[in-house]
Automatic annotation (TrEMBL):
Leader peptide range in chain numbering: none
Boundaries of every DUF4440 domain copy: 12-107
Name this polypeptide is given: DUF4440 domain-containing protein
Pfam families: DUF4440
SUPFAM superfamilies documented for this protein: NTF2-like
Gene3D superfamilies: 3.10.450.50
Length: 119
């Protein structure tokens, strides 16, 4: 494990911001590009999705209104970066109302390849 340079950390966090924006706007092309084919996404209530199922879920639900990340920490393991920290999601509830979910865990993470700026 290593601490990323300021530039690499900024690039990784920019990818996380892009992911958040794509979830809010329902940009399936961006999400498909960002998510690895081996993605396993576990929702807060325990629902498990593969990449394809998550993309379908995002397309149908269009649930995200706002995503706020808190106290993010980036760690690098070889060519993989792990982002941990809190998250608050403001979402459309299935009945049409707005709901808020908060997840805080040092184990909750986003994993990204570190070749963000590589050509």
């Amino acid at each position: 494990m290593s601490t990323p340079s300021a530039q690499l950390e900024a690039e990784i966090l920019a990818v996380e911001t892009r992911r958040q924006e794509a979830l809010i706007t329902g940009d399936l092309d961006a999400l498909s590009e960002l998510f690895d084919d081996s993605l396993v996404h576990i929702h807060a209530p325990g629902l498990v999705h593969t990449k394809q199922l998550l993309l379908e879920h995002v397309a149908v639900r269009r649930a995200y209104i706002e995503i706020t990340r808190q106290d993010l920490h980036v760690r690098v393991f070889g060519d993989t970066a792990v982002i941990t920290g809190g998250i608050v999601n403001r979402m459309h509830a299935p009945g049409g109302a707005s709901a808020r979910s908060t997840v805080w865990s040092r184990r909750c993470c986003i994993v990204a390849r570190t070749a963000v700026g590589a050509s």
